[in-house]
Write a sequence for this structure.
C-alpha cells in the first residue's frame, strides 16, 4: 500500500482525525532533534517591561504576511521581537529571515525543524502557521517546552490531541491564542450582546454559507525542488512517502493534512456562532459533500453541507461551495424575528435586526446593529487579535480565543468531517471528551 493510500485509510478509520499517536509524535520530536519533557514546563512569564521574544513556525504566506508582518507592526507598542523562524522549505525560510532582519534590525535564528527552534531557551512564545495536521502536535511540543502559543485554525484535526493540548495549557498555565480572530471582532461581540437580551425569542435555527468560484487554493509548485525541502521534517507525524511538491504547496486538498472544508473554513463560522450564542459543543453532527467540479486530484469535497444539533436548543447549518459564488448568508432565526449579517459573509460590518419570520405579535423593531469599538485599536482585526495575545502573556489572563474555544470548534468541525467521510451521524460525549458514530 502506498504511503498516500495508507494516510487516507488511517485518516478514515480514525474518524477523520489526524494520526498522531505516541509513536507518531515521538518520531516527530526525534526528527526535530529534541526530546521534550516537562522540565521546561514552568516557562518564562514576561514582565510588564520585558521584551517578548517570539519564534515563528511556518513562514509561508500566512506566517510571513500575517504573523511576522503584524508582530513587526506591534514591535514598539507591544515590545516584541521575532528572534527565530522555522520552515521546511528554504524558499520560505530565506524570505522570512530577510523580512525579520528588515523589520526588526537583527537576523533571526533559522531552523527547518521545529524541535530545534523550541530548544532555544530565550524564546517566550511561538506562533504556528503550518499545514493543519501539524498545528496541535507542534503546539503540544511547545507547551511542554514552556512556551506560550499562537496557533492557526483549525486548532486540531484530532479530538485526543486537542484534549492533550488543553490539559497541558491548563496544567502549565500557558497563554494560548487560537487564530479564530473573530473572537476579537466587535461585530460578533455586538451580535452576542443583542442575542443575550432575548429579543428574538426562542432561537431554533442558525444558518450560514460561504461560496467561491475560483481556484484560490492552487498554489504553484514548479519552483519547489527536493533539495530545498527538509521532507522528513515536513512528514514528521505522517506516513513516509516520496517527495511530492504538490503536497507541500497544496496540502489543503489532501486527507490527513486537512479535514476538508469543515475544518479549513467551517472553524471560523462555528467559532463565531459559539461566541454569539454562548454554545460550546454540539450534541450531534452530520454532513454531505462531494467533488462535483474541481477534478484536480483533490481528496476533499468542493461542495459541503454540515448540520450540527446543539443542546442549547437550536440547529446550526453551514455550507460552502467552491463551484459557484452566489448564496452567501448568515442569519439567526427566532420565534420573534431574525438577525442577519448585512453583507451575508463572515466579514460583515454590521447586522440587521428585524421581525422577519417572527410571530404576528412580534414587537421587534428593524434596526442596524453596529460592531462594538475595538478594545486594542492595534490597526485592524488580526492585529487586535495578536495584541490581545501579547497583553495576556504579560497579565497571564486567558485571551479572547483561548484554547478552550479552540477545543470547542475543533470538536465540532472534526465531528462533521468524520460524518462526511463515514456517512454517519457523530455524537460528542462532553464527560469522556470523545466523539463516536450513532
Amino acid at each position: 500500500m502506498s504511503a498516500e493510500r495508507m494516510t487516507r485509510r488511517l485518516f478514515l478509520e480514525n474518524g477523520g482525525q489526524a494520526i498522531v499517536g505516541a509513536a507518531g509524535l515521538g518520531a516527530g520530536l526525534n526528527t526535530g532533534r529534541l526530546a521534550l519533557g516537562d522540565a521546561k514546563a514552568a516557562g518564562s512569564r514576561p514582565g510588564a517591561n520585558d521584551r517578548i521574544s517570539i519564534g515563528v513556525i511556518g513562514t509561508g504566506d500566512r506566517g510571513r504576511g500575517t504573523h511576522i508582518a503584524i508582530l513587526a507592526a506591534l514591535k514598539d507598542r507591544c515590545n516584541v521581537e521575532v528572534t527565530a523562524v522555522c520552515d521546511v522549505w528554504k524558499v520560505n525560510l530565506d524570505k522570512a529571515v530577510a523580512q525579520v532582519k528588515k523589520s526588526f534590525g537583527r537576523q533571526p535564528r533559522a531552523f527547518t525543524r521545529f524541535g530545534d527552534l523550541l530548544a532555544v531557551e530565550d524564546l517566550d512564545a511561538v506562533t504556528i502557521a503550518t499545514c493543519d495536521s501539524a498545528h496541535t502536535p507542534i503546539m503540544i511540543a511547545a507547551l511542554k517546552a514552556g512556551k506560550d502559543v499562537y496557533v492557526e485554525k483549525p486548532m486540531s484535526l484530532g479530538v485526543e490531541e486537542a484534549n492533550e493540548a488543553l490539559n497541558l495549557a491548563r496544567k502549565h498555565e500557558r497563554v494560548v491564542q487560537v487564530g479564530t480572530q473573530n473572537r476579537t471582532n466587535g461585530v460578533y461581540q455586538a451580535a452576542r450582546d443583542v442575542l443575550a437580551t432575548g429579543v428574538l425569542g426562542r432561537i431554533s435555527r442558525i444558518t450560514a454559507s460561504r461560496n467561491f468560484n475560483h481556484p484560490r487554493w492552487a498554489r504553484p509548485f514548479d519552483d519547489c525542488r527536493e533539495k530545498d525541502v527538509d521532507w522528513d521534517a515536513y512528514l514528521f507525524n505522517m506516513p513516509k512517502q516520496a517527495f511530492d511538491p504538490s503536497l507541500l504547496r497544496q496540502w489543503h486538498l489532501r486527507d490527513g493534512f486537512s479535514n476538508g472544508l469543515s475544518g479549513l473554513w467551517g472553524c471560523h463560522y462555528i467559532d463565531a456562532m459559539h461566541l454569539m450564542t454562548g454554545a460550546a459543543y454540539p450534541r450531534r453532527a452530520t454532513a454531505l459533500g462531494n467533488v462535483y467540479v474541481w477534478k484536480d486530484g483533490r481528496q476533499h469535497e468542493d461542495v459541503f453541507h454540515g448540520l450540527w444539533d446543539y443542546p442549547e436548543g437550536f440547529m446550526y447549518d453551514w455550507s460552502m461551495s467552491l463551484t459557484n459564488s452566489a448564496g452567501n448568508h448568515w442569519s439567526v432565526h427566532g420565534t420573534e424575528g431574525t438577525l442577519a449579517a448585512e453583507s451575508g459573509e463572515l466579514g460583515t460590518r454590521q447586522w440587521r435586526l428585524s421581525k422577519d419570520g417572527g410571530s404576528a405579535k412580534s414587537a421587534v423593531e428593524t434596526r442596524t446593529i453596529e460592531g462594538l469599538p475595538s478594545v486594542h485599536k492595534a490597526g485592524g482585526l488580526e492585529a487586535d487579535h495578536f495584541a490581545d495575545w501579547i497583553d495576556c502573556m504579560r497579565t497571564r489572563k486567558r485571551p479572547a480565543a483561548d484554547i478552550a474555544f479552540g477545543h470547542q470548534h475543533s470538536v465540532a468541525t472534526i465531528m462533521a468531517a468524520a460524518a462526511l467521510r463515514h456517512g454517519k451521524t457523530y455524537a460528542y460525549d462532553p464527560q469522556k471528551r470523545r466523539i463516536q458514530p450513532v
